[in-house]
Amino acid sequence: MLTKIILHANKEKSLLRHHPWVFSRAIDKIEGTAQAGDIVQVYDHKHIYLATGVYNPKSQISIRVLSFEQEQKLDYNFIKNKLIQAQAKRKFLIDQGNNGYRLVASEGDFMPGLIIDVFNNYLVISISSYAMEIFYEDIIKALSELYSSYNIYERSDTSSRQKEGLAPRCGIIKGNAPVSPMYVLENNSVEIAVDIENGHKTGGYLDQRHSRHYLMHLCQNKHVLNCFSYTGGFGLYALKGKALSVTNVDVSKHALDLAKKAVAHNHLDPGRCKFLAQDVFNFLREEVAKDHKYDVIILDPPKFIKGAMDLKKGCRGYQDINRLAFMLLNQGGHLLTFSCSGLMDINLFQKIVFDASLEAKVNAQLVTTLRQDQDHLVALNCPESFYLKGLHVTI
Ligand code: SAH
């Protein structure tokens, strides 16, 4: 018998709409005992069944829901079927000449706290919740069965894992240690540098695949500034799109070293690139002071808003970099600006970018909106899984 968790009156609404998170404040009582990692059933205050999930009292999200069907067994087959479904949904992208893709996108694939990225013949898994931690053995077994010739590497070292009370765990699970850099073909077009062992997150950012390709067509004979470049993905497409110059700026020297190697690997012209290991905020201010100008600017910063507490400060950060970017843009220039903060919605982001344009005294027009690429699925029951928003604006 699974432990029953009873919610306060009126706290069942989000579960009735299949949102997968139950916050501690919604819980009235626990019938029996529940420890971190226990599978529990959630009931409303009238004791009507709502959902089944995994309990973790250490997390703000006390229960992560895995099923809304009382009879559903949460076992090996449950996990394996989810992985099979996830793979089938990505087929169309692989067919378009992509050797890297997100196989499992956490809540986006109804597996809260599990990310699996595929880079060539490497599966990189990252577990950031108890809800998925308890299925660790099942996940590895299912992956080994479904992808028998693949190597498996673990990068469970996120800060959200720490918040769940789980110790970091990284290393090779199956096969050989990955080489660095590893190159992953995107859009049949460019090979992006990935560092599975020492890079950010799982080693590389696949979510910008579409927007990087989109950028390529804006760059012919242009001077391009790629801020928060990481391993220079946007910069490679800019070069491929015949940019006159590409300035990559990132605080990580290691990422820039990989970016440099990727330029050579893709047979692009290193003479047209700069790699600056600098804080982007300082760099942009210095460029404004020098009255430098660019035709195309990319702003792809890390998450400025990690929790509701950071909202105001984070918004100010977005506004600052966007204002400075507008000040550096030539008339007729293009700005591709992004926010990967799940708590920032696209309308608020557009307002912030507009405010930034007012401060910079330019008239900006929206060309189109951009978003995380298609393998980073957004589950409609969990709007937070739509985390990466972008705007292409021109002045
Ligand atoms: N655009 C990249 C992904 C960017 S991820 C791509 O297409 O792959 C965010 C990057 O911002 C990281 O590489 C991180 O090192 C860098 N970063 C974070 N804070 C920074 C700062 N203040 N100044 C410069 N770079 C920063």
Can you give a write-up of this model?
This protein is an alpha/beta fold and 395 residues long. The chain has 3 domains: 3-67, Roll (Archaeosine Trna-guanine Transglycosylase, Chain: A, domain 4), CATH 2.30.130; 76-174, Transcription Regulator spoIIAA; 205-394, Vaccinia Virus protein VP39 (Rossmann fold). Helix content is 29%, strand content 30%. It has helices at residues 13-16, 76-89, 91-94, 130-133, 136-146, 159-163, 209-216, 233-240, 253-265, 280-289, 311-328, 346-360, and strands spanning 3-7, 21-23, 27-31, 39-43, 49-55, 61-67, 100-105, 114-119, 122-127, 151-156, 169-174, 182-186, 190-194, 223-227, 245-250, 273-277, 294-299, 329-339, 365-371, 389-394. A 7-stranded mixed β-sheet has the order 16-15-14-17-18-20-19, sandwiched between helices. Strands 2-6-5-4-1-3 form a 6-stranded mixed β-sheet. α10 runs parallel beside α11. It starts with a strand and ends with a strand. The model has no long low-confidence stretch (mean pLDDT 97). Bound molecules: S-adenosyl-L-homocysteine. S-adenosyl-L-homocysteine binds at residues 200, 205, 208, 228-231, 233-234, 250-252, 255, 279-281, 300-302.
Question: Summary?
Answer:
With 395 residues, the chain is of the alpha/beta class. Helix content is 29%, strand content 30%.
